[in-house]
C-alpha cells in the first residue's frame, strides 16, 4: 500500500463498468477496501445484503441521514444511495486507503468535505458503447435505462471536475491503472 493512504472516489456514468473494474481489481488485490453503500434500490439477482449494498427502506435511509451516519448521499434514477461514515473514518484513522464507488453528486459532496480526496472519473470509449453496456447488462427496464442515460449526459459533462480520467476500454488495463492510483503494488 502507498505511504500516503487517502480516500479515492471512483465515479462515472451508469454502465461504464465501475463495478466490473473494481471487482477485477479486488480479485487480484483483496486488500483494497471498498465502502459498502446503503441504498433504497431493490437488490438485483445475485446481489447480497451487506456485500454489494446495505439494502434499506426509505425510513431506514431517512434515519441514517438524520443521525449523521452518511458521509454523502444522493438520489440517483429514483433511488437513494449513501456512504456509511463510520467504516470510512475507521479505515482512514488506521491509515488505510479507502475506495468509494459513487455517483457525481456524491463525488462533489466528498470534494467539499474532504478536499484532499482523489477523484477518478471512469469514461466509456464512446456514447454508443455506454448505451450497449447499460442495455446489455439487462438489469433495468427501458424507462430506468433512459433515466440513467439522462444522468450520464450530465456526468460526462462534469468530467473536468475530476483529478484523473481513465477510459474503460479494457477492464484489465483500467484495473491496473486504478491500482496504481490507489498506490497498490
Ligand atoms: N471494458 C469493458 N468492455 C466491455 N464490457 C464491459 C467493460 N466493462 C464493463 N463491461 C460490461 O458493462 C456492463 C456494465 O458494467 P458495470 O455494471 O460494472 O457498470 P457500472 O459502472 O458499475 O454501472 P452502475 O453505475 O449502473 O452500477 C456489464 O455488463 C459489464 O460486464
Ligand atoms: N452518491 C452515491 N452514489 C452511489 C453510492 N453507491 C452507489 N452509487 C452510485 O449510484 C449509481 C447507481 O448504482 P446502481 O448500483 O444502482 O447501478 C452508480 O453511479 C453508483 O456508483 C453511494 O453511496 N453514494
UniProtKB/TrEMBL annotation:
Entry's Gene Ontology molecular function annotations: kinase activity
Class of the enzyme per the UniProt entry, highest EC level: transferase
Sequence positions that bind ATP: 12-19
Keywords: ATP-binding, Cytoplasm, Kinase, Nucleotide-binding, Transferase
Catalytic activity: GMP + ATP = GDP + ADP
UniProt-annotated location(s): Cytoplasm
Cytoplasm is among the record's keywords: yes
InterPro entries from the UniProt entry: GK/Ca_channel_bsu, Guanylate_kin-like_dom, Guanylate_kinase, Guanylate_kinase_CS, P-loop_NTPase
EC number(s) per entry: 2.7.4.8
All copies of domain Guanylate kinase-like, residue ranges: 5-183
Domain of life per record: Bacteria
Similarity annotation: Belongs to the guanylate kinase family.
Function: Essential for recycling GMP and indirectly, cGMP.
PANTHER family for the chain: GUANYLATE KINASE, GUANYLATE KINASE-RELATED
Protein name: Guanylate kinase
Provenance organism: Kitasatospora nipponensis
Phylogenetic placement of the source organism: Bacteria, Bacillati, Actinomycetota, Actinomycetes, Kitasatosporales
